[in-house]
Amino acid sequence: MQLEIHAFQAAYARCLDDEKLEAWPDFFLADAVYRVTTVDNHRRGLQAGLIWANSQAMLRDRISALREANIYERHAYRHILGLPLVEQDGAGATRAETPFMVARIMRDGTTDLFATGRYLDVFARDEAGALKLRERVVVCDSSRIDTLLAIPL
Amino acid sequence: MPLDTAWPEGTVHQVPYWVFQRAEVLAREQETIFRGACWHYLCLEAEVPNAGDYRTTQLGELPVVVARDAEGVVHAFENRCAHRGALIALEDGGNTKDFTCVYHAWRYDMAGNLKGVAFRNGIAGKGGMPKDFKLEDNCPRKLRVAMFCGLVFGTLSDATPELETYLGPEITTRIRRVLNGRTPEVLGRFTQALPNNWKLYTENVRDSYHASLLHLFFTTFEVNRLTQKGGLIVSESGGNHVSWSAIEEGAASTEYAQQQIRSDSDYRLADPSLLHGFQEFGDSCTLQILSVFPTFVLQQIQNCIAVRQVVPRAVDRTDLHWTYLGFAEDTPEQRIMRLKQCNLVGAAGFVSMEDGCVGGFVQRGSAGAADQQAVLRMGGHDALSSDTRATEASVRGFWKAWRAATGL
Predict the structure, then answer these.
(1) Which helix (DSSP H) or strand (DSSP E) does residue B55 occupy?
(2) Which pLDDT score is estimated for A79?
């Protein structure tokens, strides 16, 4: 399981960094939760997110909005992931906590450290037995987002 | 310092780009607007509900503490120790019985009154403050505080009119529409760092012309089209505004297609539940963007309620603080809908994402054009209310209030 989760995280990061955004929702179950928040909100138990989704279809809408509707300057990410800490919780669910750093590369070459944080994940298997995310809460360390958050973390 | 400014007096339909570029303009704004005769949003009353609660915030560059005392009175004072100028409170907020400066342990009460000076009488009879030193002569500057519908405002100036006069009847009515009679709860706080002068954002908020052209998400789902029923209210001062739109059943329009504007597509959502809001206000108004000069915004987009506070950090850098709101009266289903609709706004907002970058496009686009001018002639030359949003009247209104405040 540990190794399988390592491979999952690596594939997730490559999917976003290679801009294969249409494949990104496939890492999630149909009724998955995906939220992007900050340490400050997370610690206080505040529920709102920069992104807040409770279905895979909402994640697909994120991507089609990015492709079809939203305006932003062309850019790409590079995710550097730390080692996942994998645990079974009392209810038998597999949880993982994985630290990340994301660099943002703008079209003019400007490269910034865009975000650091951790993924708080709950994993499960779909009907075909494939490992998927039941929940991913992206907890950013900083309360500030530079300019905008278009491509998901 | 006299400024070399070329801008015909009274003109608000043309705006020279130097106003977004010069350090001395920002210095003038700090003095005449942020420390001048304007009301500034500080926080929500709900963020300091109990005795001893406090929040820290900014009036432009001026750091401020907002605190509730044991009697329940909300105070605001400069976050600057009267001794050597260090910050008194270092956290975003919390609960305390008093404030002690970390530098030399000068101690203040919840109203900013100096209550204690370490070693005031010296040690073993030596040193200490002179006999004529009085605690009450040494305080950080105190702000006047006024509250309206749970919003806490502050001003350093005695010349600022009463808050409700400053807001005006159109604005107070529409703040009440959103907030009155309910108990706000903070759902989340986020800061968006904008790569532009603060006024490019406050203009953007008041710019009802751009909404359906830049923000395709809105237009496609008919959340907002200029051809919808809607209007624009500009306060007498020019500085405050309300832009609203309402659903009108069966009002199909071909005007967007005729203009060949990017805002017309057949894009559809896989999970449209985001758009299935609930009736909250007893009217058909799906969008109400309200601003108060200089830097406060109250937003209702369907059931997504937020306050926004604009804080300049440098000539070309601005912090935009978002506070998403729900109400204690929300049902669990209503709360979920608010969280869902928060996807529309903020740094990752389907609708407002573009506002994070478009100010930077202007800042960069106009970099070599200090003596050139932006054109604000949509809907005429004045700053009056109108029943169309195809106008830049409220942007002109902002400049009317800005010119009056800064004397530029």
Answers:
(1) strand B53-59
(2) 98
